[in-house]
Amino acid sequence: MAHYAYLDANNVVVTVIVGKDETETIDGLDPETYYSLGTPYTVKRTSYNAATNGFRYNYAYIGGYYDPEADAFIEPATECGHPELILNTTNYRWECSNAEHPKEL
After folding, report:
1. Alpha carbon 67 to chain centroid distance?
2. For residue 2, which of 26, 25, 42, 31 has the smallest C-alpha distance?
3. N or C: which terminus of the chain has fewer CB atoms within 10 Å of its end residue's CB?
4. pLDDT, position 101
5. CA atoms of 98 and 105, how far apart (whole Å)
6. In which element (H, E) is residue 42 found?
7. pLDDT at residue 81 greater than cutoff 70
C-alpha cells in the first residue's frame, strides 16, 4: 500500500489516495503513470514516513505544493501573524526567523 498525491497544473495537491505499492505495476505501468491516466493531474507518490526516509521530504497535504526541482512536498504555510516565516530548504518545512516565536511551524 502506498499513497499518491494528485497535482493540478500549478503543482498544488488537490487530493491524496491510497493505491498500489510503488513496486507493483498496473497494466504494465508504474502507479504514478497509471493513476494519472484520464485525468488532468500529475500524480506523485508520497509517504507518511517522508521525514525519516527522505522521500520527497514531507507527506503531501491537500492545498500543499510540490516543488518539481527539489522533488519535495511543501505543506501550506501556517499563518503565524508576522512576516518572518521562511522555507527551510534543507527539510522543506516552514520556520520562523523571529527568536520570540517557535522555530518550526
Report:
1. 8
2. 31
3. N
4. 67
5. 12
6. strand 42-46
7. no
Asked if residues 65 and 13 have their Cβ atoms less than 8 Å apart, the reply is: yes
- Distance (Å, whole) CA 100 – CA 25: 50
Phi, psi for residue 35 in degrees, rounded to 5: -70, -20
Q: Given the C-alpha cell 506523485, which residue does it identify?
A: 44
Which grid coordinates are listed for 69? 526541482
**pLDDT at position 73 over 60:** yes
40: its cell numbers: 488532468
| Count of positions (residues) in the chain | 105
Q: How would residue 19 be classed by pLDDT, with cut points 50, 70 and 90?
A: very high
**How many angstroms from the chain centroid is the CA of residue 98?**
26
What 3-state DSSP class applies to 16? strand
Which residue is it, cell 502506498? Answer: 2
C-alpha cell at 12: 498544488
